[in-house]
Design a protein that fits this description.
Blueprint lengths: L3 H5 L5 H17 L3 E6 L1 H11 L5 E6 L8 E7 L11 E6 L9 H10 L7 E6 L4 E6 L1 H7 L3 E4 L2 E7 L12 E8 L4 H9 L3 H9 L3 E3 L2 E2 L12 E4 L3 E10 L5 E8 L1
Antiparallel strand pairs: 1-3, 2-3, 4-6, 4-8, 5-6, 7-8, 9-14, 10-11, 10-12, 12-13, 13-14
Helix pairs in contact: 6-7
Length: about 260
């Protein structure tokens, strides 16, 4: 048995971790890999950090593409043979959203109201006024395929999609250096993501930006070393180091994950 009490002590997501521990124990007992449902990034990262000291357990996460935020976690005994492909499916949600634009949250709400469990839904990428791409479990794909779906006022159809639409590249890292007058979120994120400061401020107010996976809506939010900035559809920016220059400006070292 795994040391549950120790692993869950002080956890930010104790219920989700408890469910993952049950899967881990099954995988260790049966010598067969177990897959979780899709996990939000903070839950997955906490599980990976807390389970890392367990020498007999091996973890891997799959979300369908390099920048995926919601991923399924594979739990298995160390030394297990490579498993078959991850249980993921890709659906195209097609509809005309020219006159009633929809956000990812609108698609997700329609799917959940249609009876699809949140744990069966991975990332959802909006494709302008054409609809969206949905990563989901094979079971959810079978349930949804060919079924009508109403998103806001738009009638949509769901059909299998080619994974090439997403691009299967792994995350890449790029080191950046910049000098800024302040440590405001809009200034740092503008420099790191290569977006004008006014546009970045707008994206922050629209709820497209998070700090350490927590929603933020204030462009003036002050950052500190170690903070991670997530921008929907653009990856992540990590503020590595901060040095005050002789002219009272900030020299920043950043890592962009894209």
């Amino acid at each position: 048995m795994l040391p549950r009490k120790q692993l869950l002590a002080g956890a930010a997501h104790p219920e989700a971790l408890s469910q993952l521990l049950a899967l881990a124990e099954t995988a260790l007992r049966t010598h067969q890999p177990c897959w979780s449902g899709f996990l939000a990034a903070p839950v997955r990262e906490e599980a990976e950090a807390r389970f890392a000291p367990l020498g007999e357990l091996q973890l891997a996460a799959e979300g369908g593409y390099g920048q995926a935020e919601r991923r399924r976690l594979r739990l298995e005994r160390q030394g297990s043979p490579p498993p078959p492909a991850a249980p993921l499916a890709l659906l195209e949600i097609s509809g005309n959203f020219l006159f009633d634009p929809a956000e990812a949250a609108d698609f997700r709400l329609a799917l959940e109201q249609g009876g699809v469990a949140a744990a069966a839904l991975g990332d959802l990428l909006v494709r302008g006024d054409r609809g969206a791409l949905l990563i989901c479990s094979p079971e959810a794909a079978q349930q949804l395929q060919g079924q009508p779906l109403l998103v806001r006022s738009v009638a949509c159809q769901l059909q299998p999609a080619d994974w090439a639409l997403l691009g299967a590249q792994e995350p890449r890292q790029k080191s950046l250096s910049t000098v800024e007058a302040s440590l405001r979120l809009d200034a740092v994120a503008s420099a790191g993501f290569g977006i004008s400061r006014s546009r970045m401020a707008e994206l922050i107010r629209l709820g497209k930006v998070r700090i350490n996976w927590n929603p933020v809506d204030s462009p003036s939010r002050e950052l500190k070393p170690g903070d991670r900035i997530q921008l929907v559809g653009r990856g992540e920016l990590v503020l590595e180091t901060v040095l005050l220059t002789k002219r009272d400006r900030w020299r920043l070292s950043l890592t962009r994950v894209l």
